Structure formats: structure tokens, C-alpha cells
Fold this protein.
Amino acid sequence: MDPGMNQLLKWSIENSDSTRNDPVAATDPKAERSSGQGLTYETVKSLMGGPSDAELMKQSMAAIQSAEVSLENKVIAFDNFEQLIEIVDNANNMETLGLWSPLVAELNGSEAELRRMAAWCIGTAVQNNIKSQERFVAVRAIPRLTRLALEDQNELVRRKAIYALSSGIRNYSPALDALIQQLPQDMRPDGKVDAGDMDEVDKIIDVIKQRSARANA
């Protein structure tokens, strides 16, 4: 028998025995079991022999960076990557896997579609996620995204850059302060802005959207 299947079978038997020996668990389907008996999504995938999310993330980034992969397949790899980092734990694992720097580097790519996808992924990673927001500032993604939002000739790229900035600055003052420093003087707000004040943050984003709309004018 495959080792992964053998381990999964062993786990199933152990938990089945545990249920039979526990009169409460046997009669109450909502009864909690010991947390040590549970299998995580990642563990099940590993037991079944499939690649972990971490491996899939690295494979996706390798495809995105490869000169031998077509643009179409790079976009597919980016789409897969974006879906993976919708899971907060995966987004937080990007630093450990060394994926932040290559992702941000894609913002400088010659292909608009790849710039768009890179901005999209960054926006997904940092949304409501302070650990990723910290990396967002540390890897200096904000200057590049600000430039894309205001100057890129592709409207879809500008939109995703604004999305990434909007996601990254909310409830995280270092990111908001870094963005304000990147804006032209006439776009900066008067006085200090609270990153937790969504109305004030929205005003900054609206100013960026208005200036962005002029890029193709």
C-alpha cells in the first residue's frame, strides 16, 4: 500500500476507535475531539502524495519567471498563485519561501498582463493581513505600485495597482505614510491621516483614481 494511504488509513482507524470508546462522541456528532487527532488540509494533501501549497506557490513563481514559459501559461501560473494566496497562511508564507521579491519585480515587467497580475496578487496578499502588509512596506512595493497607478499606459494595470495600494494601506499606518510620501505634493492630504479612518483613506484612493484616469488622456 502507498505510504501516504497507509498513514491516512491508520489515522482513520485511530479516530474511529476513539469515537467508539467515547460514549459522548458516539451519540453527539458535535462533540469535539482532541485537536491532536485532527488532520489539516496540508497534512491530508501530503499524506495523499500531492504537492503542498508551498510547493505549488514556488512552482507557479518559477513558471512566471521562466523565459521558456509562454505568456499565456505565465498568466495561468499567476492566476493559480493568486488563488493560493487567498489563504492567509499561504500569503504569510510568502516571506519564508522568498516569493515577495520576485513578485514585486514583476511590477517592472514589459508585459502589461504580467504587471497587472503581479499587482493583483500583491493586493490579495495584503488585504486584511498585517503580516503581509509589513512585507509590503519592507520590499518597497509601494513606490512601484504608485508609479503604475499614476503612469502606466494600460488602464487595467492602473486599476490593479490602485487595488493593491488600497488593500495595503488600510489599518496599517506605515504603509499609508509610505504611500503619501510617494504622491505628488498636490495629491497629498492636509495633515496626518489615520489609517483606520476608512473615509479618509477612501479620499486618498479617490484622488489617485482621478489622477490615474488622466494617464491615457
DSSP finds 13 helices and no strands in the chain. The radius of gyration is 22 Å.
